[in-house]
Specification:
The chain is mainly β and about 140 residues long. It has a single domain, classed as Deoxyuridine triphosphatase (dUTPase) (Deoxyuridine 5'-Triphosphate Nucleotidohydrolase, Chain A, Distorted Sandwich). It has 1 helix and 11 strands. The strands form 4 sheets. Strands 2-11-6-8 form a 4-stranded antiparallel beta sheet.
Length: about 140
């Protein structure tokens, strides 16, 4: 089991924890109330700085309910934090664009993260054809 060092910038947010048996993603919470008007952008502080183990990175994405509950989008779609972002003041933020007027309160769960090993070294080989089953191209799954 890896041990992860976490610095909290706020006493008002719940501490990080895994939801045993339900998910291997960890919820992140707003550490400051943020009022946004439709069309406004804000970096919402998440109240943590984390020292990731060497060779690991964190993916940060919105929770499935974030847009419905708050009307905000993560502007970079998926945040990537590598192990070099580990200083005492390297607080994590959620880059939010408001689609409607909204308020995000302290301790609201707005995004989640998971920690992954870096991708292994790869080499690419050009081929004339791929031998996998053809799925029908972009947007073809889920049709009735």
């Amino acid at each position: 089991m890896e041990t992860i060092q976490v610095k909290y910038f706020s006493e008002e947010i719940e501490k990080l924890s895994l939801i045993g048996g339900k998910s291997d993603w960890v919820d992140l919470r707003a550490s400051q109330e943020t009022v946004l008007k439709k069309g406004e952008f804000a970096l919402i502080p998440l109240g943590v700085a984390i020292k990731l183990p060497e060779g690991y990175e964190a993916l940060v994405i919105p929770r499935s309910s974030t847009f419905k509950n708050f009307g905000i989008l993560q502007t970079n779609s998926c945040g990537l934090i590598d192990e070099s972002y580990c200083g005492n003041n390297d607080q994590w933020y959620f880059p939010a664009l408001a689609i409607r007027d909204t308020v995000v309160h302290v301790n609201d769960r707005i995004c989640q993260f998971r920690i992954l090993k870096h991708q292994p070294e790869l080499s690419f080989v050009e081929v004339r054809e791929l031998t996998g089953e053809d799925r029908g191209g972009f947007g073809s799954t889920g049709r009735c």
